[in-house]
Design brief:
The protein is an alpha+beta fold. It contains six helices and 13 strands.
Length: 228
């Protein structure tokens, strides 16, 4: 049985081994999400990634491998490294309970299109509509429309990742993200799990996460590949 620290070093792998096992596609010892849900993969053995990526690319044309420090091997004839995103992992150290001034609601399947459209407006390119199935999503409505959300993504028996924190450009600078992150964090704590999140190195949101009690813990690199 793996301990928490081992799981945090390879969060995609252990999410697919545990809570998200129903979304697992395994190819030659490399684990991937069903691309209709998410396009992340994870590995331990770099010698296995070349063949696995070739096979997974038959299901989706763009996808990630996520790794703390290992470099995946690829078949240059079939797979192109589009870019490497230098990311980092943050783990909750001290919970800061922000009392919401807005009504925060648990979103349902009726909101799937609204969630998808808002994420693609703010962060286009990587979110699949069925990503809604990865965990709970919470939202703030203004003027009869969804204007800010936060969600849950990778999950194991020990942790849940806060993700998909987006606010409509017309509704920024109102503290919606801060309230949603704190609210989502509290929901995870109430499930007796550790809240974590991932972001890009140098992201301007990192100081906000730190004010809400998160600390930087390790690098977490995202290798974005494209089928040739």
């Amino acid at each position: 049985m793996k301990n928490l620290e081992q799981k945090l070093k390879n969060p995609v792998w252990f999410s697919l081994q545990e809570t998200h096992n129903k979304h697992l596609i395994e190819i030659d010892g490399v684990l991937f999400y069903n691309p209709e849900i998410n396009n992340f993969g994870a590995f331990f053995n770099t010698d296995k990634t070349k063949n696995a990526l070739n096979e997974y690319s038959k299901l989706t044309d763009r996808f990630f491998l996520v790794s703390e420090n290992q470099i995946p091997k690829i078949d240059d004839n079939k797979i192109l490294l589009e870019k490497k995103i230098d990311g980092c992992q943050m783990v909750l150290e001290n919970f800061v309970d922000i009392k919401p001034t807005e009504e925060i609601v648990l979103l349902t399947e009726e909101n799937i299109d609204e969630v998808y459209n808002l994420i693609w407006l703010v962060m286009p390119g990587f979110y699949q509509k069925r990503g809604f199935e990865m965990g709970k999503f919470f939202g703030i409505f203004k003027d009869d429309k969804l204007v800010a959300i936060s969600g849950q993504r990778m999950q194991t028996d020990d942790f849940i990742e806060v993700s998909s924190v987006v606010t409509h450009p017309d509704y920024t600078k109102r503290g919606f993200a801060k309230q949603l992150i704190s609210y989502t964090t509290k929901e995870i704590i109430n499930e007796n799990k550790l809240p974590i999140l991932h972001t890009n190195k140098g992201n301007k949101a990192i100081p906000l996460y730190q004010k809400l009690g998160y600390k930087l813990t390790r690098d977490m690199n995202w290798w974005l590949f494209k089928r040739k």
